[in-house]
Amino acid sequence: xxxxxxxxxxxxxxxxxxxxxxxxxxxxxxxxxxxxxxxxxxxxxxxxxxxxxxxxxxxxxxxxxxxxxxxxxxxxxxxxxxxxxxxxxxxxxxxxxxxxxxxxxxxxxxxxxxxxxxxxxxxxxxxxxxxxxxxxxxxxxxxxxxxxxxxxxxxxxxxxxxxxxxxxxxxxxxxxxxxxxxxxxxxxxxxxxxxxxxxxxxxxxxxxxxxxxxxxxxxxxxxxxxxxxxxxxxxxxxxxxxxxxxxxxxxxxxxxxxxxxxxxxxxxxxxxxxxxxxxxxxxxxxxxxxxxxxxxxxxxxxxxxxxxxxxxxxxxxxxxxxxxxxxxxxxxxxxxxxxxxxxxxxxxxxxxxxxxxxxxxxxxxxxxxxxxxxxxxxxxxxxxxxxxxxxxxxxxxxx
Length: 399
Hints:
- With 399 residues, this protein is an alpha+beta fold.
- It has a single domain (6-377), classed as Beta-lactamase.
- It contains 12 helices and 13 strands.
- The protein has helices at residues 6-12, 39-57, 101-114, 139-143, 156-165, 177-185, 201-215, 219-231, 272-275, 281-293, 299-307, 365-377, and strands at residues 61-68, 72-82, 87-88, 95-96, 252-254, 260-262, 278-279, 310-311, 317-318, 323-325, 328-335, 338-345, 350-356.
- Strands 3-2-1-13-12-11-10-9-8 form a 9-stranded antiparallel beta sheet, with helices on both faces.
- A hairpin with a 4-residue loop joins β9 (317-318) and β10 (323-325).
- α3 packs across α7 and α6 (177-185) packs across α7.
- It is globular and about 55 Å long.
């Protein structure tokens, strides 16, 4: 099966920063500008670097916004948002953001911690039943990716079923969180809870269920009231089907037999609190800095979020639903048809958002663009592509 399908998009929904099959050879790196480079020169270099990556990886369209005070404030739309009509990519286009969704879910959990309604030391069994070792797995372990739970994207039967359903229409392929837990429950843990890191979408699905259980609200409604409205994220949403707000960029993936298809209206509900959201470059630019600075959290809660640092083996530090890659804090995402990078350097008030309407290239399309952009604008803080960690070996039952 070609790597781009759900089998990989499910694993990458998630993926950590710009996860790719291999690092980019040094010969392909874009040289950093000299200290005396003008703003006009830098803009031209950025245009050229983005367009070069798009040619190399056959990326149909991309949106890039990078702001580093004193260096650059740059936004550009490139290529096409619809290959069938040739419609140019627009800065107003909505796109699916995959695992950037996790940063919203993680923040919602921490808001409830701040309110004293939950604690990160609480076991998941306190809120959700049927989770293997639910009395041993804490909310902190879920947000830090330390649970050891087998996740639905690892299940071949689930991947095949969902892939067969999604092309049938915007309402096809809907999966409930409870069904995802049932998949997890059929498998032994991959490792003892808390013993190591493994990226798994089920962790954030469970945290989304906690938000709904504690607040009595649908997750989308909670996000609207407590994150979107306070930050005026007017173009960000949690869809209940595969329909997209207009305007939107069409997203392209490949089928198991290798055909390129338009996956724009594939239902993302299976990804839920781990990866179903939709947004725009302007909203994500706002969210990147708010997330990295902890704008919606009390300072002590933001410190608690970041205090437990874990080396992932992927070239990044992963904290509570957020990564730190060479000074850039945020997340990336991949879902059939789309790849995203959304990061910030809080102490510099710097932000970077890259949206690409394909998940077909072997390299994470948005991640590769983010790499060349940061080579130019923040040579001391380059967002780099990293190799994925080896697949986990499931533990025997009962351990």
